[in-house]
Amino acid sequence: MKRQPTVNSQQESLSGVVYASSAFLIWGLSPMFWKVLHFIPAFEIIMHRVIWSFFFLIILLVFQRHWGEFMAALRNRRTLLTLIPTSIVLGLNWYIYIWAVNNDHILQASLGYYINPLVNVLLGVVFLRERLRTLQIMALVLAGIGVLYLTVHYGKFPWIALTLAVAFGFYGLIRKVAPVSSLVGLSVEMLFLSVPALSYILFLDRKGTGALFHVSAKIDFFLMGTALLTAVPLLFFTLGTRRLNLSTVGFLQYIAPTCMFFLGVFLYNEPLSRAHIWAFVLIWTALCIYSTDSARHYRQNRHLSEPSKP
After folding, report:
1. Which of 12, 63, 151, 301 has a CA-to-CA distance to 308 between 20 and 30 Å?
2. For the chain, what are the domain ranges?
């Protein structure tokens, strides 16, 4: 007999959807935050994001009692060697994203995060020897056609979208082998990046060209607030994924690039060409196929793994 969901499990699922949706909504609306800092070089913004995020994450580690796990990660040579390259890739991803937003390329950034799940599948095939199902192959082909169409008809190679998708894909791939939680892993990565970041900010301050404490209290608040924009959605995402199955998280993750798409078109008036429209239609179709196949595959596996009930 099919097991009926309990009230507690339904409440957990509902809270999981709220947490995960909130995380993706914050990420999707983040261009509005970065636009406030548009006159500051993206590299300088990243340095502030690293420093303030590290301070805030240390507080979270203590508050959530993960300090022991954090210190254990610092003593583990394999973990450190894994998180050094992820630190570099994460910094690159942040830089390109903020640069794209503040240089009127939000549509390309959203395209990158639409493509990312499909890039993850491709990386799994190449590096983890995973086998693709028929619908996954179809989704990858459609997405490839969309990117190729945009390149040929728009006249510009969508390097921002592809770099964001590939960089974040490799970030996830490498992080899979690091036996640490998201919070601890990010804290170690920020520790690695904080030394050069702090050196650069002090250098700018000595030259009198840094933005912090030299523009306005509002800008100071936003620079320090990059910590909240980094840590809060990560915390929500972690709380949400603990309560939801993978297929549900897979559907919810498209909230972020969808918000970015609408912001780019309707709020910041980025040009939406016919090539853009067709490329997005092809990629959205690919994502529908991919998500439907993933959900069906998850349900089949769950059904097979459940013990039979009398």
Report:
1. 12
2. 17-296
- Give me the count of residues in the chain: 310
Q: What confidence score (pLDDT) does residue 154 get?
A: 67
CA-to-CA distance for 111 and 189, rounded, in angstroms?
26
Q: Which amino acid is at 95?
A: Y
Q: What is the pLDDT of residues 61-101, one digit of tens each?
A: 999 899 999 999 999 999 999 999 999 999 999 999 999 99
In single-letter form, the type of residue at position 32 comes to M
- The closest alpha carbon to 188, from 301, 66, 84, 296, belongs to 84
Phi/psi at 307 (5° precision)? -70, 145
Lookup: tokens for 167: 């960089």
Angle of helix 274-305 versus helix 134-154 axis, rounded to 10: 170
Extract the tokens encoding 99. 């640069």
